[in-house]
Amino acid sequence: MGKHLTTRDRVIIQYQIEFNPQASLHSLAFDLKRCESTIYREIKRNAHSLGSKKAKFHRGTSLPCLKLKSFPYVCNACHHHKRCSREVFIYDAYVADQISQQLIKESRSHPRISLTQLHELDQTVSERVMNHQSLYHILLSDSTISISESTLRRYIDKQYLRCRNIDLPRTIRFPHPQTSTRVPRKRTNIEFLVHRTYQDFQDYLRSSPKVTLQIDTVIGKKTDMKCLLTCFEPLSKLQWGYIVSKNAHSINRVLKALIESLHHSHHLFFDCLLSDNGSEFYSLPLLETNQEGEKLLRIFYCDPYSSFQKGGCERNHALIRYVIKKGESFDSISQDQINELFSHINSQKRKSLAGQTPFQVFFERFHFYPSEFIPLFELEPSKIKLKK
After folding, report:
1. Count: domains in the chain
2. Residue among 175, 273, 293, 197 at smallest CA distance from 231
């Protein structure tokens, strides 16, 4: 086990704080097989403040809440924290994960040489760099420099030396520092994420051979009432889609009908669903069992801002964009048009499939045709058209 807490550990911590009144440092340490001091430092260090409502109307700071001096040291489980006049501290698993990763990054970003060595390196390198000598040339001609070219370039970028990036002849120069366009993330419904994180998904795959169905939504215009729900099977790269309303109920209804039809025909070829962390997928766990209580499949979620964890589905969306450009509305597109589009996409031979089509590979792996559960058809190679 690594020494750092994982995203799954933090999800369990937040869940126990919010939903288990009997939780304690001791019980969390026992469940996660960690020291109590580790759990304590995790909560205290990575909890974030939501500020104080009282500070908006009164100068100065309010007295801290006495409840924060004992477990859980945060306000998650307090029913009054949304209207409390004192400073509110919240433990959010994914925010804590971001804070932790930033601390690890910063702790490793400092030069691993002494100040004396750094000064000597500056005297040796800076003047030559400002004369537009390349770093490769400097390192090759001076055997006293013991660091690599990439490390030297990083030292210059972090301004540990007198020379700057602008003195490097081939370094890209930006007129202004780049700013992040990431919007603030809404709080995650932590109850659905327990035992359904991406780390849980990886452990599930190791237990025995599994088949995953990756699902996602493709958005047209922000004002659209509808979107495209896509389903992607990574082994065959077969993908299909449904025009659905932009809400969790509509998505669940379509997926439930798909799962039940495959289950009744004994063709339920996938064992789990993998989706992103969007709010439209929070009710997916309701699909894990049928009305008789029979377990049908497992549901898992990717980490926030980690679309690479279901990269096959995301990459296949590029083929959709050949025909339906970004910003085009889905409200005026029919299901028949979507079926025709995916028929063309899945009829194309892929280099990654050794020259076969997704239709062919799907039949080889699962021994039935996709047309038995979705209205798709394979086209002749010369009839394929991926252009509007």
Report:
1. 3
2. 273
